[in-house]
Structures are given as C-alpha cells and as structure tokens.
C-alpha cells in the first residue's frame, strides 16, 4: 500500500509546482480519491499539450519510459499497475483460449476496471479478478475416437467454455461477491472514462466534456453525419454567410457555421473519407479537413486536440478531434465547413 502521508505530501506538491503538475497531468492525484480520475482526465485532454500532460491511466497503459519529473511515490504506483496489467494480459489470453464462437474479452475494459479499483492499492488475485468478467457454459460435441479394436467410433464429449459477460452490472456484482469489495458509482464512472480514453482517445460522455447526444453518431438518410450529434440545430451560434465579426465588430463573411459545444466534446467525421490536413493554424486553431467523394471536403476548426493524422482513412461517425477554442476564437465551439469543388457551401444543406 502507498504511504498516505507521502501521497498527501506529493499531492500538495502537485498543486503548487507547475512543472510537476504538467508532468503528471493532475491525474496521478487519483490515488487520493477515485472521482479525481474523471476530473484529471478532462484537465489532461483540455490542455492541448499531449506530450507534457499524460494522465496516470495513459502512463499505465502505454509502454516506454515514465517521465523523469514524476514523484517517486507515483512512479511506484504506475510501475506496480503496469506489472499487474502484464499479468492480466497473460490471464486474459488463457481465458480466451477457452472461448468459442468468436467471443473474446476486451483487455482494455478489464484493465480500466482494475485501474479504477486498485490503482495505488493492493491488487487482488488477478486470475480471480479477470474471471469475474466471464461466465462458464457446459457444452457437448461429438468426436471420433478409437475403440479397443482400433475402430473409429463417435462419442459425446462434455466440456466447458468461458463466455464474456456484456452486462457490466453483472461484472460488478461478480467482483463484489468474489473479491468482497464495495464498488461505488464514482469508481464505475471512472472505469468508463478510462476505457473510453484509452480505446477512443476521449473520456466517456457525461463526464463534463460533452453534452446530451454527442456520444452517439447522428447520421441522416443520405449518410451525412452531424459532427456533434442530433442536437446541432439548437446550438448554432453563427450562420454561414454575412455576419458581424465577433472580434473586430465589422461586417464580414462567415465560411461555415459555428456550433456551441463544451471543450472536450467528441467531433465526428461527417462522411467516409481521407484526412487531408490535421494541424494548427492561427485562424482555425487545431483543425482537420477530410476529403470525400465528388469533390466534397469538410473542415472542423478550433479543436483542443486532434485524434487523426493526414492520410488516415475515416468513416462517418468516427471521432476525429475534441472541441475547444484554439486559434481565432472567442469561446469553445466547433467551426464546421463544407466545400464542394473548392467552393464553400452552407453546411445546413448537408447536415441531417
């Protein structure tokens, strides 16, 4: 177990030491309280400096060195969790060798729950922990064997297989019964956030970095997907065409529409295509352009973080960035453009 006095001392240092705070990304303070994980992940993602703001979860899941300026107490927790993850990988592989019908455990899900429950603490028996994510089924099969006379005969064999449990409520019930732990709603939320962060690059919706409906792709009959969910009509703050510039106050043209969303909202590709640009611009901030069929290009501006790279193929609904207020912007929003053969068009004509 981690010495509580050392943890408290190190946490206080994080709150007052800028270099340490950046190195840890605030997330290591999760040792003190499970709910801090959620806040920490959002702080990390909102920073826009990925290389210098790495969450505890990311450090545990990734390979490679641990930043030198992380306090020794936290380094020990990360190394301990990495070792547990390596052992969990072996246990999961063994479980999956006894699965059928294409079933498999999701290693990220198993380790995200482990991180939420045991980061900085004493780990349970890991095989016992991992088996809480599965149920056992007895099955029969007909096999051909040799009888005493060397003749082929068909016999029925009874065997057991593991089946992954999809219902997380059942998983948590298994964990509580098998390991004798009390699992809070905050810990469950933390596990969802860590899972989403590691698997998709952004924390789960409902953690403050999103809004209702943004967690589900909203695709129209023609296949065009809203980059911010079904609620987009209610959050348009600036239309396409002529408008008064919010910074200069002068009448000017607007090349897209602005959609008011909280910083950290997942932004989705409108159509299948190939990423052409993913970089910073003094006007658009961190922005992405995607090339589609029939000379159509979409642009997504003012993001806090980019999750794709030029040349990458995406599908409609894929998360490509997290919203923000970078570049020439007066507040968190998405600037969304549609261009057809080089000419800008009103995105309202395309959005579902």
Report on this model:
With 352 residues, this protein is an alpha+beta fold. The chain folds into two domains: 4-200, no CATH class; 218-349, Glucose Permease (Domain IIA) (Distorted Sandwich), CATH 2.70.70.10. It has nine helices and 16 strands. Strand 6 and strand 7 form a beta hairpin.
List keywords for this structure.
single chain; 352 residues; alpha+beta; ten-stranded antiparallel beta sheet; 9 helices
* Total number of strands: 16
Q: Could you report the average pLDDT, rounded to the nearest whole number?
A: 80
Alpha-beta content class: alpha+beta
Residue fraction in strands: 25-35%
Overall 3D form: globular
Based on CA atoms alone, the radius of gyration comes out at 25 Å
The topology string of helices and strands comes to HHHHHHHEEHHEEEEEEEEEEEEEE
Counting structural domains, the number is: 2
Helix percentage: 25-40%
Distance between the termini: 53 Å
- Count every helix, treating DSSP H or I runs of 4 or more residues as helices: 9
Low-pLDDT residue spans: 1-53
Main sheet specs: 10 strands, antiparallel
Q: Which helices and strands occur, and which strands form pairs?
A:
Layout: H1 4-16, H2 18-24, H3 36-47, H4 56-61, H5 72-96, H6 107-118, H7 126-130, E1 134-146, E2 152-164, H8 168-179, H9 185-200, E3 218-219, E4 225-226, E5 236-238, E6 241-244, E7 251-254, E8 257-259, E9 266-268, E10 273-281, E11 285-291, E12 296-306, E13 313-314, E14 319-323, E15 334-340, E16 343-345
Antiparallel strand pairs: 1-2, 3-4, 5-8, 6-7, 8-15, 9-14, 10-11, 10-13, 11-12, 12-14, 12-15, 15-16
Helix pairs in contact: 1-2, 5-6, 6-9
């Amino acid at each position: 177990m981690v010495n509580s006095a050392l943890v408290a001392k190190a946490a206080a240092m994080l709150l007052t030491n800028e270099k340490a705070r950046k190195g840890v990304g605030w997330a290591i303070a999760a040792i003190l309280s499970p709910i801090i994980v959620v806040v920490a992940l959002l702080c990390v993602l909102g920073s826009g400096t990925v290389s210098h703001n790495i969450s505890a979860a990311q450090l545990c899941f990734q390979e490679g060195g641990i930043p030198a300026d992380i306090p020794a107490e936290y380094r020990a927790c990360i190394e301990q969790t990495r070792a547990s993850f390596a052992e969990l990988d072996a246990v999961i592989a063994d479980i999956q060798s006894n699965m059928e019908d294409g079933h498999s455990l999701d290693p990220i899900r198993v380790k995200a729950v482990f991180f939420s429950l045991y980061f900085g603490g004493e780990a349970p028996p890991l095989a016992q922990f991992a088996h809480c994510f599965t149920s056992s089924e007895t099955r029969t099969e007909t096999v051909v064997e040799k009888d005493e006379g060397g003749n082929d005969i068909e016999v029925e064999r009874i065997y057991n297989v593991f089946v992954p449990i999809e219902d997380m409520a059942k998983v948590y019930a298994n964990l509580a019964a098998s390991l004798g732990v009390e699992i809070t709603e905050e810990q469950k939320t933390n596990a969802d956030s860590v899972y989403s962060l590691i698997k998709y690059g952004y924390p789960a919706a409902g953690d403050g970095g999103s809004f209702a409906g943004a967690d589900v792709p909203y695709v129209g009959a023609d296949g065009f997907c809203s980059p911010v969910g079904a609620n987009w009509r209610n959050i348009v703050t600036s239309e396409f065409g002529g408008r008064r510039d919010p910074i200069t106050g002068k009448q000017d043209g607007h090349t897209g529409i602005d959609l008011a969303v909280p910083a950290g909202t997942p932004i989705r590709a409108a159509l299948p295509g190939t990423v052409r640009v993913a970089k910073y611009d003094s006007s658009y901030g961190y922005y992405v352009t995607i090339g589609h069929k029939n000379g159509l290009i979409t642009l997504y501006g003012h993001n806090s973080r980019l999750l794709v790279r030029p040349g990458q193929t995406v599908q409609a609904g894929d998360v490509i960035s997290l919203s923000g207020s970078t570049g020439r912007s007066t507040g968190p929003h998405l600037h969304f453009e549609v261009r057809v053969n080089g000419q800008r068009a009103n995105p309202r004509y395309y959005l579902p």
